[in-house]
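Support case: user asked for a sample of complex input and structure output to validate their parser. Sending the pair below.
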Amino acid sequence: MGEKELAELLHLVSRRLRHGYVHRLVPLGLNPGQARALRALGAADRPLRMVQLADELRIVPRSLTPVVDALEESGLVRREVDPANRRSTLVVLTDAGRAMAERAREARREAGESLFAVLSQDQRDQLSDLLSAVDAQFR
Amino acid sequence: MGEKELAELLHLVSRRLRHGYVHRLVPLGLNPGQARALRALGAADRPLRMVQLADELRIVPRSLTPVVDALEESGLVRREVDPANRRSTLVVLTDAGRAMAERAREARREAGESLFAVLSQDQRDQLSDLLSAVDAQFR
DNA sequence: TATTGTTATACTCTATAACTATA
DNA sequence: TATAGTTATAGAGTATAACAATA
C-alpha cells in the first residue's frame, strides 16, 4: 500500500512543503524564490554580488535577475555598482528588506514546523543528517 | 557550516533528484510529469479515469490534461469514453505506452540510485520511513 | 444540481544562448 | 580574452475560473 519509492516520496513531501510555504508568503507579497534570496542576503549579513547570490541559491545568474528585479521594485533590496569592480552589481538589503527577510524566515520556520510536526526532534535530526549526506555528495 | 535547515535541504535534494531524472528521460522523449503519469497507469494495470489519475498524481484534473495530450500524441496512451459513465474519459495504455512506462520506471530507479548512492540500505529505509510518516499525515 | 473534463489564462522556477560593458 | 549581468526565449509544473456535456 504505502509502497511509494524514495524518489516519489521525496517529490511529494517537497511539493507539500512548498505549498505550505507559498501560502504563508502570500500575505508578505513574496514568492518562494524571492523569499529564498532575501533569506540568503539576511544570512550573509552583507551585500552580495549577483553571482555570489546565485551561487548561494544554486541557480544560474540569469534566473536570479527577475527575482532581484521584483525585490528591488518592492523596495526590499537595491542594486549598487560594486566600487571594487564595476562589472559587478551588489545586491543590498534595505531596512525594509531586512525586516521582510526576518518575516520570511519565520514563515519558512512555520511551514517546516507544520510539515514535520509528526516527527520527534530526534527524527528530524535523523532526517536532516540523511538529507545532508545526500546533498553533500554534490558540493 | 552545513547548517542548512530541514526545509532548505528538502528543497535542494528534491531539485537534485529532478535534475538527474530529467536527464535520463530526455532520450525517452518524456518529461517528469508524463513519466509519472505513465508509471501510475502501469502500476494500476488497468485504464484510469482522468480524475482518478489526477488524484493518484495529486494534481488537479486541469493540470493533467496537457500531460495526457502529449502522451496521446506520442501514441503511448489513448482516450476512450468510459462505457459505464459517458462523462468520464478512460486513459488507456497502449502497448508502446506499457513498454515506455517500464523504461520510465527504470530511469527513475537509476536517478534515485545515483542520488542516494551515499546512503546504505539501512539509511535509505530510515529515510523512506521518515518521509512516509510526513507524507501520511495528509492522506 | 453535481460531476467530468476541457478551454483560457497565468505565475513560478529554471535553463541555454547571445549580447553589452568592463576588466 | 574572460567575467558579470541582462535581454530574449523556452519549457515544465502547477493553479483558478468558466464552460459544455452528461448524469
